Amino acid sequence: GSTRMVCDISDGCKNNVKFGETVSLGDDFKIESILPKVEKGTEAKAHITPFTHMAAKRVLAGTVSPDAIKEAFSEVSQVVGIDVLDTAPMDITNTSEGSEASDDQRVYGAFLAAAGKMAVDDAGGLAAGLTKLTDSFKDGEFTAEDDFSITRFMDAAHVEAEHAEIKSPQLEKIIANIKAQIDKDGNYDPQPSPTATALPVKKAKALVGDIRTWVNSVNDLSDPAKAFDADVESAAKVLNSNSTVLAEMTVNVITSIFEKFQSMADEGTLQLGDHTINIADKQGASAGTVDVTLSDENGIKMVVSEQTLEDITFNFELATHLPKNVLNNSSFDLNKVKISTTGKVRKSEASMELNAVNLMVEFESPLTITPGADKPPLPKIKLANLSGKTILKADGATFDGNASMKFTQLTQPAMNGNSTVSLEKVSIDGEFLTSGGSSFSANATLTVNNAATFDTFAFLRHQPEMWINGHSTDDPLDARLKFSSLYPDQIQPPSFDANFSHGQTCYYGSDNYECRGEDFLGATEYVSDLVKQQYPSLIEIKNINVSVNHAGVALDTGYSAQMVFPDFETAEQFAQATLSVTLDLALEGYANSKAVITADRNKVKGGDLSIALIRDGRVTTYSVLVNADNPIPETLKVTNLDNVALELTRRGNQLSGKISVDGTKVGTIKNADSGLFMVRYQDGSFETLQ
Fold it and tell me: Which residue among 111, 278, 306, 536 is least enclosed by CB atoms within 10 Å?
């Protein structure tokens, strides 16, 4: 056929057409858009995409009219969170275009690629896949019985955006908003805006009415926090640093086991039975060993007996896809490792129970393992995913449900230690139990957008102050000689104790005790040099203590130091993270309503905070700019998918603003002497915001 397109699907289109290459669509491929009547002599622009095709088919399935067209596009726009008719989608195969594209254009490009992926994955090809998409939405909703899965579509958008390196907090917000509306059976029924066919001022008044209703409903509560059917603090606890440290240790132990077994397989020494594997700590030193039993059960299976490393106790079983021929000197290719894990990991502050949780570790490049050949380099981990049924407990709160963690390769040197991976994403969806015994359902996702260049594990481990301890079995301070010269008559036989602390040195000899207000041992210089070599980033050493014990010919020198470190994050290098939490609302008159709270940290001391309120298949978003140095927001913006935007700006004690539709101002907002906010529209009408 003559119709062609650029393949924007990460896995490529069929017939060996790769991402970014041109593909012919065939004679049976047809895609449409539909517009309301255009007045003679006026110019009209329309984009033609699978989503405009969905809207056109929705209109053509009923009575065609200008209002039906507007309602159909309003309805389809709810599916992807942006205006599908007026937004020009980004070509995600063109990296230069990405830097100039708006957030809406990036989002549109990701969703188009996701639709293409689902169509290509259909056995009937692109045309058949597109037909299934439009047929599924002919009745205005996606159901679990449809050939097109809305849940898979949202997941595909994630995959395609990641492949195209689209870092878009807005996309994350939209996907969270859509998933919040998918019921437990997989059904999703978006609704057109009730003012989709209205004139601009009426659309603006509808948004003001929604705001007034929401605010009054919350104000009627004794505690505004009770608007959420959840304990947000409890939800946050299961994502704290203690939980992520458990995940880090789990990944570290498992990858260490596989690296050792891969090395043994290459040498032809890997056998079924018991093995002892050394595990390195975050500094690269040995943290201890684990005992592993290796067996063959339609793939290599490993059982790690209960053991403790660095105060973390664990035991688990790992079932892998690795073939038995890793044991019999046969060559095989290793691209990735897939593991199903069951077990427990715990420390005093937190615990993690895994029930058939799948871990996938993908290497940067494939390895061909040939026993007897030169030993290949240990593989670099490209990414790792951990997902499945999980029970997390931390600080008295419990989560029971599905959890996933994604780790990506760290492309910059580790900031503290020898980590090669960084935590990129944590997601949980299930039931929370608070320390007080109440429970609620919710889900939360934390995404570190710059995980490849920011060492998230070092950040989680960072402490502004810490003590370090060490000792030496020789005499690095020449204490024996120095004390012998000071007390020649007291060291017969040579035995003494001494310590340096708070600027003075105290000596405990066989016959006397004496303290001197000086550091004649040189303890400060000795310990400072040792600590600075190990921790070059420290900015101050507050306290130094040294003890020397000399008994007979044996001498032991112990030391401790209190170290002060600079802030881990800087204005240029900080965790650029997006946290999204979905909660049910507990407001009278708002049954089955939800809130998606999203915090997008794009500055070291600030970012964007938004709350998307979802009711009756429609979304209204409230967003503010947050600055840690100024807790009162300077701006508030409220938007909906009718392209209505209300903006308020604070200057001192005064608030003013405007309300616009499709980018055109239709009203202004100012303080009245009564303390109310007056909204005056361009048609001469007015109302209060409260």
Answer: 536
